[in-house]
Amino acid sequence: WEAGGIIKLASINWSRQIECEENVIPIIVIENKIMFRKTIMDVYNQIIGNPGNLVLSENNQEIKFSKHVELINDYINIDLNDKKILIKLYTLLKDKSLEDYDSYCRISESISDYVQELLFDEEFDLIQIENIDPIDIFRGVSVKIDDSSMNVSEKLLEYITILEKFMNIRLFLFVNLKEFFNDEEIVQIYK
């Protein structure tokens, strides 16, 4: 999105549209519980690719929820090692590892030689793939984001940073954020 652009959120069920300016946090309060639930479900369904009643746009161009919006409603179970995040992380690490191709080849050859030694004495006909994808190495050694020392608000902030930086998420929709975090934590999240 363009810096300083205004994102508009509209629904056929609302009397007006909501404008989201950069660094300005709009707060939407839906007091009718049925409408609240339907709106949250509509956002969720559009994020997973289904059609819905909400329209998100910038400069009169529709923006897909599935590519640029994240709905956060469970602050306890935020997973920094979600599959989509790890796939992106592994891809970035793969690109980095291939920049030093000689080191990658040495490591790959060492792994391959070790596996060949293990396979040699087995009674089954076992084979291994000739070229080891760096992503398989990262999975094999369980490369993950360490969130063990983070509290809930720190984990949320890290999640937002990761999604912005690696997943191109530009709009975060929080459900009942002010019910879960205190004012000081909210200020940190809004930054």
Structural account:
Helix content is 48%, strand content 13%. The protein is of the alpha+beta class. Strand 3 (54-58) and strand 4 form a beta hairpin. The model has no long low-confidence stretch (mean pLDDT 88).
Provide key terms for this protein.
two-stranded parallel ribbon, alpha+beta, single chain, 4-stranded antiparallel β-sheet, elongated
Short description:
With 191 residues, the chain is of the alpha+beta class. 48% of the residues lie in helices and 13% in strands. Strands 2-1-3-4 form a four-stranded antiparallel sheet, covered by helices on one side. Strands 5-6 form a two-stranded parallel ribbon.
What does the largest sheet look like?
4 strands, antiparallel
- What average pLDDT do the residues reach? 88
- SSE string, helices as H and strands as E: EEHEEHEHHHHEHH
Specify the number of helices: 8
Uncertain residue segments = none
Structural class: alpha+beta
Cα distance spanning the termini = 18 Å
Tell me the total number of β-strands: 6
Amount of beta strand:
5-15%
**Shape summary:** elongated
**What is the radius of gyration computed over CA atoms, rounded to a whole number of angstroms?**
22 Å
Report strand order across the widest sheet.
Answer: 2-1-3-4
Helix fraction, binned, reads 40-55%
